[in-house]
Amino acid sequence: MNTEPVVLSVSAAAALAICFHISIIPHEIDFKIKRLLGLYVASIAGLYYLLHRETVTNPGTVTVLSATVFNAALTASILIHRMFLHRAGKFPGPFMARVSKFYSVFLSVKKMQYHKEVEQLHRKYGDFVRTGPREVSVIRASAVQTIYGAQSTCSRAPFYSQVADHPNCSLHASRDRVYHNLRRRAWDRGFSTAMLKDYEPRMGALTDLLIAQLRSRVGTPVDITTWSNYYSFDVMGDVGFGKSWGMLESGKLHKAINELHAAMALLGYIGQVPWLSRLLMELPAATKALKGFQDWCWKQMEEKKKAVAQFRPIEAFCWLAVETPSFGPWGARAVDSWVSVLPVRNLSAATRLFGRVEVLDKPRDLITWLLTDSKLDTKLPSQAINEDSRLIIIAGSDTTASTLAHAFYFLAKYPGAYKKLQNVLDAAFPGGDAEFSNATACGLKFLEGVIFETLRLKPAVPGGMLRMTPPEGLTIDEVYIPGDVVVSVPTHSIQRDERYYEKASEFIPERWMDEKAHMVKDKRAFIPFSKGTFGCVGKNLALMELRMVLAKVALNFELEFAEGENGSRIEEETKDTFTLTVTPLFVIFKEREK
Ligand code: HEM
After folding, report:
1. Residues that constitute the known binding site for heme
2. φ and ψ of 444, to 5 deg
3. Lower CB density within 10 Å: C or N end of the chain?
4. How many CB atoms lie within 10 A of CB 590?
5. Are 19 and 57 in contact (CB under 8 A)?
6. Could you give the CA distance from residue 439 to residue 561 in angstroms, rounded to a whole number?
7. Rounded Cα–Cα distance for residues 447 and 466 (Å)
């Protein structure tokens, strides 16, 4: 046999593998895997054809040998680079984390509590831990502003592209800052102070429904995790889509929500390796699992689009309010005296001319804000807006439900705190829960303390939000982190760090009040809603929900663990599926004696 072509082919394969690896190092290839696999298969077929044409003996064997050498050389090159030469190489961490991000999958699969695994790694390796080949977790309060602050030069990491590509992705998956800002504007309008005022009574009606359901179960064990889910989903139905999903009414979780939780579980396992989750999501079996929830969300959106098509364009019909006293008897009370209804073509010109202009047919839910934003209208592909419909449900429901369930857990565990909360609320709303207003509740420091302490100890998104360092890298205190490294501050761990909180693992709502303010040593280490450009857009809505439910429940009922419940399951078995998936918590509500 002539060995020359064999040696040539095998050496070329090894050289090609190393050159290929060196050429991809500076690039993000995570979501090009399918194309690269296609290229790989085509190259093998091409090689076979070439060898066959040149009448080399055993072209099949030589092709397999060359492919094997290519694979081995590529693997060796990747491993050597990751272990000894990588730009993130100076950071300590487990050996396997240096080699592959699959180590994080292994840690996630153990108990599906990756946030707790990361906490252990920080205990062992210090403030800067290499949690993946190109990933560093940083547990320093000083890192928060640098990584997440409004002026941060970091961008979103590939993690965010695992469901869909730009520009067909949701707001949450938008990694391009300009595109993100354009979309975020419409979301911000949907969560403006005026809109929150509009949502408050609607949310109040749903809270009253929750209270009525709890009242009908007084004295019997209630799974408050599930009821928190019904509540938060129904709120998002109303605020997000302007319709009722009726879960509070029926006491049943919608089938689509079960499918959502199955999808989130998948994310909990493989979300650590974004390219793999993207590949899996495209497989028919996985798509089928996700499809139910996706179809349901998209159906909600289609219905909404039809309704919005009937909607008068924003800048066509406006109430006009004129703020100058010279405008007759209404002038003095101009702010709430609407003097005319006129068609207006240009809203900002009309505002300049008349002082103040209010839109007559103002959207009353989030989706309508997104669909009618004139700047977004032409630029947003319809898949992107469909993805946003999923985002509203995922981001707005599970997070609030998890926080509510955990707040009830702490209040049942610490009856003294519950009593104190009731006293504070009784003083603020002597006429009972009918008097509740978000404005008054905002001023109740103990209520705020209960909410903040829950968000501190049980942040609904417990892991670090992954960001990519800019090409020039960044410096945190004395430590330089090179460019194109994925960095994060682990929310769960930093919020339990003794350097930043006194008695950090204890539930002490008073630490958020003047009397024990010294127990919060560094407020920068409080990031349950993240921060900056990509921070939570629904924060104020979520806080309003939490205030309202906790206040109305505490004003109406006594609370205790049900028999056989001590909260250990919620502590030990709740899962990190990007948001927390909380285990059932059984409590008993009793009518308050007044
Ligand atoms: C206690 C409740 C909540 C918590 C703890 C929470 C937490 C967070 C966090 C940590 C992020 C940043 C995620 C990241 O960077 O990957 C985020 C983003 C977001 N949240 Fe919330 N959230 C809550 C409630 C809500 C609600 C009620 C909504 C309403 C729809 C909402 C909508 C969003 C959206 C749309 C984003 C993406 C923002 C963007 O990309 O600009 N959240 N949230």
Report:
1. 536
2. -90, 100
3. C
4. 12
5. no
6. 31
7. 31
Atom of ligand 1 nearest to the CA of 240: 30
Picking from 144, 293, 160, 129, the residue whose alpha carbon sits closest to that of residue 578 is 160
User: Is the CB of residue 51 below 6 angstroms from any atom belonging to ligand 1?
Assistant: no
- Residue 332 has a pLDDT of 32
Average pLDDT over residues 514-540: 97
Distance, C-alpha 545 to centroid of its chain: 18
Return the domain boundaries, the chain.
4-85, 179-282+379-465+492-591, 300-364
Which tokens belong to 70?
A: 């290519």
CA distance 400 to 543: 9
Q: How far, in Å, is the centroid of ligand 1 from the Cα of 298? A: 20
Nearest CA to ligand 1 atom 10: 529
From residue 278, alpha-carbon distances to 161, 164, 288, 305 in Å are: 8, 8, 14, 28
Residue 382 confidence (pLDDT): 82
Of the two residues 372 and 416, the one the predictor is more confident about is 416
Quote the pLDDT of residue 311: 53
Task: Please tell me the distance between residue 580's alpha carbon and the centre of ligand 1 in angstroms.
Answer: 13
Over residues 136-144, the mean pLDDT reads 98
Residue 306 to residue 308: CA distance in whole angstroms: 5
- pLDDT band (50, 70, 90) for residue 335: very low
Q: Is the CB of 536 under 6 A from ligand 1?
A: yes
Best residue among 156, 161, 536, 540 to mutate for probing ligand 1, ranked by most atoms within 8 Å of CB:
536
CA 447 to ligand 1 center in whole angstroms: 21
Extract long-range pairs of 281-290: CB within 8 Å, 24+ residues apart: 281/162, 281/163, 282/34, 289/259, 289/262, 289/263, 290/259, 290/263, 290/266
Determine whether the shortest distance from the Cβ of 172 to ligand 1 is under 6 A: yes
pLDDT digits 0-9 by tens, 348-405: 666 666 665 555 456 788 888 888 776 665 567 888 888 898 899 889 999 999 999 9
Q: Whose Cα sits closest to atom 43 in ligand 1? A: 536
Whether 458 has a pLDDT exceeding 60, the answer reads yes
CATH says 179-282+379-465+492-591 is which class? mainly alpha
The pLDDT score that the predictor gives to residue 255 is 79
- Residue, of 343 and 456, whose pLDDT is higher: 456
Is residue 509 within 6 Å of ligand 1 at its C-beta?
A: no
Residue 414 tokens read as 């610490």
